[in-house]
């Protein structure tokens, strides 16, 4: 594996991004559930805003 290979350099970053995206999704679901009791519309919009990035 050469250090100049774009794929070799990109793989760890892609894994970190995927892991971070999973954590954000779980956190967003928890926040949406917490807010849905009093503000379902706000939670829904907040979740969509995060998912759109």
Structural commentary:
- The chain is mainly α.
- The chain has a domain at 27-53.
- 83% of the residues lie in helices and 0% in strands.
- It is built from two helices and no strands.
- Helix 1 (6-36) packs antiparallel against helix 2.
- The protein is elongated.
- It starts with 5 loop residues before the first helix and ends with a helix.
* N- and C-termini, Cα separation: 33 Å
Form type: elongated
- Strand-residue proportion: under 5%
Number of strands: 0
* H/E series: HH
What is the gyration radius calculated from CA atoms? 17 Å
- Find the structural class using helix and strand composition: mainly alpha
Largest sheet: none
Total helices: the number is 2
Helix content: over 70%
Any low-confidence stretches, pLDDT <50, length ≥5? none
Write down the overall mean pLDDT. Answer: 71
Short descriptors:
53 residues, mainly alpha
